[in-house]
Amino acid sequence: MTGFSGEARIRCKQGVTDMTWVGSLQAAIDYMEDHLLDDPSMEEIAQQANFSAFHFQRTFAILTEMSVGEYLRRRRLTLAAQELTSSDTKIIDLAYKYGYETPEAFSKAFRRQHGVTPSEARKFMGKLTSYQRLVVQVNLKGAEPLNYKIVDRDAFEVAGVKREFSLVNEQNLAGIPKMWDEVNADGTDELLFKLNNGPIKGVLGVCVGKTASAIDYWIGTAYEGERVDGLSVLEIPASRWAVFEVHGPMPDAMQKVWKQIFSEWFPSSGYAHAGTPELEVYSDEDPSSPDLYSEIWIPIK
């Protein structure tokens, strides 16, 4: 088999670690492994880590660069391949065992991961791709500096536009950039910068978890005043925030800092995510500039 050897690891790098945070993530991963064939719900998985379903999915995706659903599919198909090549179990029985309603659906998914059909795999034709169970591993070494501050803010309102996105098959990852393109093209971003008079300066991107499989995404600005036609209002609750500096062009600089926050800062900080909306704060500078300054605001407890 080709693929990962041994156990795949989520690496949390820092000199001091919060084993409770690491242990919570591992508990959720272990629960997934223990219930691979039971089709556990996102709420059940997230509960093991004391996360909301939305924030567990987001944390998992940032750390592993794949969705929870994709991890479960890869693991099931890895186990299916192992059983296929080491037993005489009928392919139709394996299809049902590993969560597929028809042999055809199983064969299609199997071929997508392994590059061969179940029948070909049984004849040892071609290579198989194995994805091993994840283990959260603390890697005790230095990391790049991550500049942040802790601030307290009273509740404030965000005026802006919102759109619902499905998290299924990562539809949000394709839809949110298109939403930004539309806001930039129709002049909404210019309006938001003009309206900005609240406690946070800039235009905000805000994720609000609705269900385990859907979010509302807002593009707005902190605003105090009369309602504006065409804009909705979101109240951000009073919070203690960890505010992280982001230096460099979009989207790479922003994605890099998100990864650092979840793989390095949270495991060592002693803080937990408060579960309320996070903010990305953008200026009106050139988004491709190497000197661009942005921020990530995360509510903490």
Automatic annotation (TrEMBL):
Entry-linked PROSITE patterns: HTH_ARAC_FAMILY_1 (PS00041), HTH_ARAC_FAMILY_2 (PS01124)
Gene Ontology MF terms in the entry: DNA-binding transcription factor activity; sequence-specific DNA binding
Domain of life: Bacteria
Gene3D superfamilies: Homeodomain-like, Regulatory factor, effector binding domain
Domain annotation HTH araC/xylS-type: ranges: 26-124
Matches recorded under SUPFAM superfamilies: Homeodomain-like, Probable bacterial effector-binding domain
Pfam families reported in the protein's UniProt record: Cass2 (PF14526), HTH_18 (PF12833)
Annotated protein name in UniProt: AraC family transcriptional regulator
The entry's keywords: DNA-binding, Transcription, Transcription regulation
Organism: Edaphobacillus lindanitolerans
Entry-linked PANTHER family: RIGHT ORIGIN-BINDING PROTEIN
InterPro entries reported for this sequence: AraC_E-bd, Cass2, Homeodomain-like_sf, HTH_AraC, HTH_AraC-typ_CS, MarA-like, Reg_factor_effector_dom_sf, Tscrpt_reg_AraC-type_HTH
